[in-house]
Design goal:
Transferase(Phosphotransferase), domain 1, ATP binding, two-stranded antiparallel sheet
Length: about 230
């Protein structure tokens, strides 16, 4: 999101447009994860603009020079972009939360700035603190610098995520293979145990006398009659 917004501002500034209201609320995130800048109600064409009439301004997103002189330039958009990044990495926390607008003005113009959350990559955090949240606009970077700085960081993050995805997939495959082996071994053990139990049951079963068939009984009866006749 930070890179998408940086590229959007880069395009606006290349076409001599000052947005003047850069904030997370004015960044739309599409389904295909493309950031689009919105709300151009305060935007002006040119490289410098001075507010001459009373107008409500987003104090907590303003650059120091805008607070003191009411001037807007592409560099003031850069400062507001840094505040927007704070919103992103703090998961939507309001900048200078719990601080009044008057106190915020005093902080910003004297060089005090927001501290980027730990969720922000260390390199990018230092870049924002040292190159974006700068009181002197002449020492502040332009959006071309910001976009160029972010791109390799994003690429590193994507590469690390891809490596982790591959490693996680390999681990899942190994776990599944191990699980299947264990299931097979357990199945074999259950089968052997079942066979052994049947064998023991058959061995211990009491023997029952076999029933004599009718023909066997008849043969024995005839034999007994012959014995009795011989005795007489």
């Amino acid at each position: 999101m930070c890179l998408g917004a940086a590229r959007g501002l880069q395009y606006l500034h290349a076409n001599h447009c000052i947005h003047r209201d850069i904030a997370a609320r004015n960044c739309l995130y599409s389904v295909d994860k493309i950031v689009k800048l919105s709300d151009f109600g305060l935007s002006v064409i040119g490289n410098q603009f001075k507010l001459c009439t009373s107008q409500k301004l987003p104090i907590k997103w303003l650059a120091p020079e805008t607070i003191t002189t009411l001037y807007f330039t592409p560099k003031t958009d850069v400062y507001s972009y840094g505040v927007m990044c704070f919103e992103i990495f703090s998961e939507g926390e309001e900048p200078w939360d719990g601080v009044t607008n008057t106190e915020t003005k005093r902080n910003v113009v004297t060089g005090k700035h927001l501290i980027m959350p730990d969720a922000c990559p260390e390199k990018f955090r230092s870049f924002i603190h040292e190159k974006i949240f700068v009181v002197d606009p002449k020492r502040r970077v332009v959006m071309d610098d910001v976009a160029r700085f972010i791109e390799p960081i994003i690429n590193d993050i994507h590469n690390a995520a891809a490596v982790n995805a591959v490693m996680n997939a390999e681990v899942r495959v190994r776990i599944e293979e191990k699980t299947n082996v264990l299931k097979f071994q357990k199945s074999e053990i259950n089968t052997r145990t079942s066979d052994q139990n049947r064998s023991i049951t058959q061995t211990n079963a009491p023997s029952t006398p076999r029933k004599q068939s009718n023909s066997s009984r008849k043969i024995r009866a005839k034999g007994n009659k012959k014995k009795m006749t011989a005795q007489k």
